[in-house]
Amino acid sequence: MTLKINKLTGGYSRIPVLKDVSFKVERGQLVGLIGLNGAGKSTTINHVIGLLVPQKGKITINGITLQDDPQSYKSKIAYIPEMPVLYQELTLKEHLDLTIMAYGLDYSQAWQRAQNLLKTFRLDNKLNWFPAKFSKGMRQKVMIVCAFITEADLYVVDEPFLGLDPLATKDLLDLIAAEKKRGAAILMSTHVLATAQEYCDYFVLLHQGKVRAQGDLEHLRNLYGDFDASLTDLYLGMTQDVNEDD
Amino acid sequence: MKMIKIWEMRLKRYQKMLLHYSKFVLNDHFVIALLFFVGGAGLTYSNFLRTLPHTLLWWEKPLVLVILMLFLQAGSLTSLLQEPDTVFLLPQEYNLPTYLKKGATHSIIIAEFLQVFLLLLLFPLLLRGLHWDRLEVTALVIMQLFLKYSNVDLEVAAAYYPKFDSWLFKIWYCVGGPVLAIFLALYANVYFGLGAAVFFLIIQIVSERRSVRYVFRWNKMIQREKNRMMRWYRFINLFTDVPQVSGKVRRLKYFDKFLPQPKQGNTFYFLYWRTFLRKSDFSSLYLRLTFLGTFILLFIPNYWLSFTCLLLFQYLIGFQMIPLYFAFEGNVFMYLYPIEEAERLFAFRKILRKLLFLNCVIFNLCAVYATENGWGNLLLLAFSILEVFVFTGNYLTKRLRENT
C-alpha cells in the first residue's frame, strides 16, 4: 500500500495554495506532515481524501486515482478530521454501525475490534448516548474508534492530539504503532513537533505551500548541518532562512 | 444621535432580511395552498354567519371575548438588540432610551395595524351576530388599540422596571385589565369598555412614572429579542433553511425497535430513518402537516375541493421532506464513504414513498368519511397512489438534480 503524491498543485480557488508538492507514504510507514498554520497541511489532506480536485499533478493509492475507481480509492482510506464530525442524531453505537455498513466490514469482527477500542478509550459505557454532545476530547476519541475499526490501508490523521488527554494520546500512538505493524500507511499532520519527532518515520516539511524538505530525522539533520538539532530547531531554522530569501 | 443611526441601520437590515425570506415563504406552492385555505375558510365563515339566528346565542359573546384576547397577543416589542450589544453598546447605555423609543414607536405602529386588520375579519360576526351598529364597532376597535398600546408600553417599561415583569403585574396588566375592559364592552356597554381601557392605560403610565428606575436590564431584553427572532426563524424554517435554526434532536429511545437494524448495503436507509425521526425539523414538520391535512379534509364535504386538497397536501408534504436528502451536505464523511450515490437516492426514495403512502391512507380515509362519494372516492384513491409514484419517481430525481 502506497500513497503517492506527484507534483500536486491545488487549492480552493484558481490561486493555488499548494505548489508542486510530491511525497510518498509507504506500507508500514508513519509520515508526519509538518507545517505552521496556513502552510498547506489541511489542503494537502483534503486533496488526498478527495474533497479537492488537483489542478495539476496526480494522487494515487496503489496506482489508482480517485477518478479511476472512486469506490475502491475511498474504501482504502480512514480519515480522522481535526474537528470531530459527528451525526447529531445518531448514538455512539449507531455511529459504529454506520461505519461498518459504509465500509462494508464484517459485522461481528468489526464489533469485536470496536469493543476493544471502546474499552481502551473508556467509551464502552456510553454506547447509547449522542456523542455530538460530548466534550472535544471525547468526540475526538469517537472519531478515532470509528476510523480504526475499518482496518484501512491508509490512515489520514489531521492534528490528532489537540484536546486529547495524555492517556488517550499514548493509547492513540500505541494504536498507530500496531496498525503500522499490520502494514497500514499513515499520514499524520501535526504541529506537536516533539511527539512527531519521536514517532514519525519520515517527515514532510511544508512551508508556504511548498515542500521545504523531506526525509527521516537523520536526513533532515544532514541537510541542516546540525546533528543534535531537534525537529523544532530544524523546522524553525529551515522556514526562517526561506523567509530571508523572500 | 448615534443610537438613532444604529436603530435605523438595524431596522433596514431587519426588513431586508424579512423581505429576503418572504420570497421563500410565499413560494408558488404555498400561495396556492393558502388561496385554497382562505377560500375554504371564507366560505365556511360566511355559511356559518348565515345560520346565526336573530336572537343572541349564549356562546357568541364569550367567543368574541376569547378571540379579542387572542388578537391582543399579536405583535410585540421589536427592540432589535443583539447579544454583543452588552459589550459593544455598554458605553452608550445612557443613550438607550432614545433607541428604545424608536423601537417602541415602530413596534406600536406595526402592532396597531395588525389589530385593525384582524378586527376587520371580526366585523361580520359583530354586525350580524351581535347586531351592533357601526359606531359601536368603531368604539370597540379604538378600545382594542388602547389595550394593545398598553401591552407594548408595558414591554418597554420592563426594560427598566423589573417589577413590571413580575407575574402579578403581568397577570393584572396583560390579562386582568384587558379581560375586564372587553367584558364591560360586551356585556354592559362598549363605551364603558373603551373608558376602562383608557383608564387602565393612564394608571399604567402614572405608575411607571412613580416607580424607581433601575439600570437597563440587558440580559432580559436581549433574551426577549432573541426569542422573538427565533419565532420568526422557526416559522421561516418551515419553508427554507434558516442558519439560526438547527432543529432539536431528541433521543426517542422508545422508537428504537422500529428503526431499521444495521445490515450490509443499508447505510443510508439506516441513517435517513434515524435523522427523520430524531430531528424535529423533519418528524414534527411531517406530523404537523399530516394533522393539518387530516383536519382540513375531515371538514370538506365538497368532493372536488376535497380531491384537490388531498393531492395538494400529499404534494406539499413530499416537497417539504426533500431537504432531508441534503441533511448531511456539510459532513465530509458523506464524500469519504465508499458508497455509490445511487444507493443514497434509492434509500431516500424508499423512505419518502413509505411516508407518503401513510399520508395517502390517512387522507383517503378522511375524504371517504367527509364526502361519502362511492366511486369518486375510489377514483381519488387511484389518483393519490399515482401521485405518490410520480412524485417519488422521476419528479424526485429531477428535483434533487436541480438542487445540487
UniProtKB/TrEMBL annotation, chain A:
Gene3D superfamilies in alphabetical order: P-loop containing nucleotide triphosphate hydrolases
Domain ABC transporter: 3-233
Pfam families, alphabetized: ABC_tran
Annotated InterPro entries: AAA+_ATPase, ABC_transporter-like_ATP-bd, ABC_transporter-like_CS, ABC_Transporter_VariousFunc, P-loop_NTPase
Superkingdom: Bacteria
An MF annotation (GO) of this entry: ATP hydrolysis activity
Keywords per UniProt: ATP-binding, Nucleotide-binding, Transport
Keyword Ribosomal protein: no
Protein name: ABC transporter, ATP-binding protein
Species annotation: Liquorilactobacillus oeni DSM 19972
Taxonomic placement: Bacteria, Bacillati, Bacillota, Bacilli, Lactobacillales
